[in-house]
Design a protein that fits this description.
This protein has a seven-stranded antiparallel β-sheet with strand order 1-8-9-2-7-5-4. It has a two-stranded antiparallel sheet with strand order 3-6. Strand 4 and strand 5 form a beta hairpin. The chain is built from four helices and nine strands, in the order E-H-E-H-E-E-E-E-E-H-E-E-H. 33% of the residues lie in helices and 35% in strands. By secondary structure, the chain is of the alpha+beta class.
Length: 154
């Protein structure tokens, strides 16, 4: 049996550019009403969203889930704060990392796993502008090396 990656509903492509990802954590997402249907249609945006821990609970802030077009007036606010489902020890660990080391909780992707909405969170450190340029240079160099090896082997 092969375990394949679930198809992402939304990805935060800017996160890997702006942050250095140190660790990844999977968390469940509490949704209301028609948000699930909207997510299944792929109507979500994780840009500018972040995770926060308040009073021993984890939340996803600024994640935009568009209102379901066939929903009624009970559609929830598109950018409301959504609760993340994590074990108590995971929340305590994340809270310590964010408080002591000055790291940030950044959502990388949103997907469904066995019918449940999940968020892949990253403990990340912000990159400065020179770091971003260095990453781009390294990626270009690696690409050129792969091309040279591929050209030589054929």
């Amino acid at each position: 049996m092969t375990t394949q990656e679930p198809r992402p509903v939304a990805t935060n492509r800017k996160a890997r550019h702006d942050y250095e990802v140190l660790e990844k954590i999977e968390a469940g997402l509490v949704l209301r009403g028609t948000e699930v249907k909207s997510l299944r249609l792929g109507r979500a945006n994780l840009n500018d969203s972040f995770g926060v821990i308040e009073r021993g609970e984890a939340f996803l802030c600024n994640a935009h889930v568009s209102p379901y077009e066939f929903g009624n007036r009970e559609n929830p606010d598109p950018v409301r704060k959504r609760k993340l489902l994590l074990h108590r020890r995971e929340i305590a660990y994340l809270e310590g990392q964010v408080a002591r080391k000055g790291l940030t909780l950044v959502p990388l992707r949103l997907y469904f796993s066995r019918g449940r909405a999940k968020v892949e969170l990253a403990l990340a450190r912000g990159k400065k502008s020179p770091d971003k340029r260095e990453t781009v240079k390294r990626r270009i160099a690696e690409r050129e090396i792969r091309r040279a090896i591929k050209g030589r082997s054929s």
